[in-house]
């Protein structure tokens, strides 16, 4: 959201139209401050640059990302990845519907876990649904097949973690971090959040009163 922008380069202004104010980020201000050459960028890259200015939060979008794109050189040997958070994404049915459904399923699973921290069966089913939706979103048939083949073992593992003091809360913390990274299309953050979740699962499995030795090697 633009109100959260750090506006490091002072490009945010208010455009008045028919008595209404609209927040805009002027690319020309960057050039005046000696940052890049936005006036010479292809129009598509100007759209990306404005998006970075609007979304700069020092978490997913940093000042260095803005500078890198503003100084884009088509002849440069190396390129830098940037975050892009559009307001709308248009996709054809075959790709758009599964994408939206998987993300919605992850959100519903997180909400279900929030509402069932004293109901192990409901919590664990939502936990499994979350990871299935995550695998669906990643279009990873191998993970889907693996989860489906060992769902009984996973359910028993999760039941053991549920019995560990603070286990459900720790798991849910990581679920929300994973979901947030997926929503922001942050591949690096998604991987880091998933690794942190796996470490938490292994540690809590080891503390489980059911005995964690059979489950600590499960990295799901």
Could you characterize the architecture of this molecule?
With 220 residues, this protein is mainly alpha-helical. The protein folds into two domains: 2-70, no CATH class; 93-207, GntR ligand-binding domain-like (Four Helix Bundle (Hemerythrin (Met), subunit A)), CATH 1.20.120.530. It has nine helices and two strands. A two-stranded antiparallel sheet has the order 1-2. Helix 2 (43-55) packs antiparallel against helix 3, helix 7 crosses helix 9 and helix 8 runs antiparallel to helix 9 (187-207). The chain is elongated. The two termini are 32 Å apart. Residues 212-220 have low confidence and may be disordered.
Features:
about 220 residues, Four Helix Bundle (Hemerythrin (Met), subunit A), 2 strands, disordered C terminus
CATH architecture of the largest domain: Up-down Bundle
Overall mean pLDDT: 80
Class per helix and strand makeup: mainly alpha
Order of helices and strands: EEHHHHHHHHH
Q: Which CATH C-level class of the largest domain is it?
A: Mainly Alpha
Identify the strand order in the major beta sheet: 1-2
Tell how many strands the DSSP assignment holds: 2
Structure annotation, total helices: 9
Could you please say which CATH topology of the largest domain applies here?
Four Helix Bundle (Hemerythrin (Met), subunit A)
What is the global morphology?
Answer: elongated
The Rg value, from CA coordinates, equals 22 Å
Strand content: 5-15%
Show unreliable segments.
212-220
Determine the fraction of residues in helical runs and give it as a percent range. 55-70%
Main sheet record: 2 strands, antiparallel
Task: Tell me the name of the CATH homologous superfamily of the largest domain.
Answer: GntR ligand-binding domain-like
Whole-number count of domains: 2
Report how far apart the termini are: 32 Å
């Amino acid at each position: 959201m633009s109100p959260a922008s750090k506006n490091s380069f002072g490009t945010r202004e208010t455009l008045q139209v028919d008595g209404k104010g609209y927040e805009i980020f002027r690319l020309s201000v960057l050039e005046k401050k000696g940052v890049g050459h936005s006036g010479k960028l292809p129009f598509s890259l100007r759209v990306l640059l404005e998006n970075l200015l609007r979304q700069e939060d020092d978490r997913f979008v940093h000042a260095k990302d803005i500078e890198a794109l503003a100084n884009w050189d088509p002849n440069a040997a190396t390129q830098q990845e940037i975050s892009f958070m559009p307001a709308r994404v248009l996709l054809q049915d075959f790709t758009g519907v599964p994408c939206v459904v998987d993300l919605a399923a992850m959100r519903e699973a997180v909400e279900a876990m929030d509402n069932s921290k004293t109901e192990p069966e409901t919590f664990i089913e939502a936990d499994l649904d979350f990871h299935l939706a995550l695998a669906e979103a990643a279009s990873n048939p191998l993970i889907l097949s693996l989860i489906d083949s060992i769902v009984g073992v996973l359910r028993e593992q999760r039941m053991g973690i549920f019995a560990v003091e603070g286990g459900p809360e720790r798991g849910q913390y990581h679920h929300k971090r994973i979901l947030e990274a997926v929503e922001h299309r942050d591949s690096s953050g998604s991987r880091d959040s998933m690794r942190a979740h796996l470490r938490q699962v292994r540690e809590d499995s080891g503390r489980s009163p059911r005995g964690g030795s059979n489950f600590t090697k499960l990295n799901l």
